[in-house]
Task: structure prediction
Amino acid sequence: MTAFCPTCEDYRETKVVEREETYDVRGRRITVPVKAELCAACGESLGSDTEDQTILDAVHAEYRRQADLLTPERIKEVRKQYRLSQKSFAALLGMSEATINRYEQGGLQDPAHDTAIRACERSGVIRDLLVRRGTLLSEWQRQRVEEALAGQPDPNAEVLERLGESTGYACRERSVSVPGSAVSITADLPVPWCGSVLTCKRFRAPRSTSFFSMRTS
Ligand SMILES: [Zn+2]
Result:
């Protein structure tokens, strides 16, 4: 591998070294193994932003392990257990949608927020929150939570799963993300295996990913 070294002001061979780096996270010393790409001539670090993000993720993961905080995956699982959108979950917890989204993307959570989210592992807590703050949710969302609490199967789950299998697109909740921007559809899409019709409407999300909103009917 070669890369441009700003110190040598030229392209240089690079070497990868493994070492441990220690970071201070909320007053705790967190040490993680790091692979660093260096200029073979002068030793300058030529790390990319991607590497920086990987290191940050590793540091956060290690901090969560030591501080016994929920992982981003677990936070998402707790929310999905009740078929809640990020917006609705946030509303029930008195947090912002952006906050929940950040935690699920790997941002380090506030300890008080962690406790609140962890409490929701018990369905009784969600029932209680629904009584107190259920009016903040849409009728559709309230119905989804009630169904989840009643242990009823998710009518959309199988449709999305099958759609994902047949198209290769990632399906989650009621949206399908399509990599690239070549596809443009606004259409009713019959789904032969379940007899329902998905209403697909395209709208563009940030970066190069297109999203379809879907409604089963
Ligand atoms: Zn150099």
User: Anything to note?
Assistant: Residues 5, 7-8, 12, 39, 41-42, 44 surround zinc ion (CB under 6 Å).
